[in-house]
Amino acid sequence: MDLCVKSALSVSLAEVLLLDLHSGIAAQTTKRPIVLWVELGSCTGDSISLDNSLSPNLKDLLHNVIDLRYHWLLMNVEGERALSVLRRTAQENSGEFILVVEGSVMLADGGTWDYAGYSDGALLTGVNLLHELASQAKHIVAIGTCASFGGPSATKPNPSHSVGVQAVLDRLVINTPGCPCHPDWFIGTLYHLINYGIPELDTYNRPKLFYGRLIHDQCQRRTYFEHGIFAQHPGEPWCMYAVGCRGPRTYADCPNREWNNTDNWPVGCNTPCIGCVEPGFPEVAMPFFQRYPDVKLPGFTTSMDTAALGIGVASLGGIGVHLGANVLSRRLRKNLVETTLPLNPPAPRSLAQQQSIQAPEETVRRHKKRPSRVRRSLRP
User: Fold this and answer.
1) Contact 234, 289 (CB under 8 A)
2) What is the Cα–Cα distance from 374 to 229, expressed in whole angstroms?
3) Is this structure's pTM higher than 0.90?
4) Same domain, 193 and 337
5) Rg of the chain over CA atoms, in angstroms?
6) 142 within 8 A of 173, measured Cβ to Cβ
7) Is 263 found in the same domain as 128?
8) How far is CA 281 from CA 178, 209, 291, 299, 360, in A?
């Protein structure tokens, strides 16, 4: 209840958690937790993303929030010497440290597709190191979609037999997916573990603090969807549903949190959400830039066109109550047919966004020449 009251008065939940943590550390009631960060089958994108953290910045995180003992990119030692630090820290602090895992677990050929270092002169596989450390950790956090669900590495044909961390461990793994993971999602989860313990998790062990609502329900362009005003190409400032937006089935707070120090996010840059936080990404989201496949219902299949026009609305629970209200009022059908365009599209918030948006006047003229363009574009 204390957290809810504070967060209601603050712009950023991460800021609330950070203030609580700093207060506890200053009062010596909270100890900086030891963190061991290992990278398995990864592009290092989540580590790079963490470097873009604003509140706290990386320096503040490392000096005032956590006691990072191992991260192969940030250490000034390497090889067996670095590995000895990792193992000694885990043994001396068994049951107390937080293990952060970046990257998928590669299981092919006994795990030899991924080596994490040398041990007594022999190569040590990532999966063996993971099992060794996981048995001693207090909490395990999988950062990024690869560590959470396998990610791009697990896409068919998946020759490396890549899987998420949870698939090889018999204990709870807290998943903070994203390709890459937003710094706030990871740091906010870390703060919650330190201050309050394990946060409330969804079916896929993602913290509901950050993955609790559909992107579609938070999108700044939701009104355009309801009125049937759809972009025909990436770069246009309307609803991105017709060009493949995965927001209606993706759970994250990107529209509210945004990226690059709350500057923008994919749809804000006039490109569709590709659902990078969901299990099965990227395979389940491909091919990109193609609209949703048909919605499968028990006994029959209805296209999203039909559903959006009133048939099968009940099956689209994720799309929400607002769409149903518009269908009942016939407003959505009217706007789909007449291709009504808004007078005031969302204003750009940066020079790059301004340059990527086609002039609304040109868009209006193009639609006037082809009055059925929007409706036709929604067909499979």
Assistant:
1) yes
2) 7
3) no
4) no
5) 23
6) yes
7) no
8) 10, 21, 16, 27, 33
DSSP state of 316: -
Tell me the residue type at 325.
A
Q: What would the two tokens of residue 197 be?
A: 């313990």
Q: Residue 311's domain is classified under what CATH number?
A: 4.10.480.10
Strand partners, 302: 295
Q: Of 154, 180, 211, which marks where a domain is finished?
A: 211
DSSP per residue, 275-303: -TTSTTTTGGGPSTTSPPPPEEETTEEE-
Number of domains in the chain: 2
pLDDT digits 0-9 by tens, 244-281: 999 999 999 999 999 887 778 999 999 999 999 999 99
Nearest to 68 by CA among 30, 92, 21, 33: 33
Owning domain of residue 181: 2-211
DSSP track, 73-102: TT-S--HHHHHHHHHHHHHHTTTTPEEEEE
189 and 273 assigned to the same domain: no
Amino acid 343 reads L
Pair 133, 83: CB distance under 8 Å: no
pLDDT digits (tens, 9 = 90+) for 151-168: 999 999 999 999 999 999
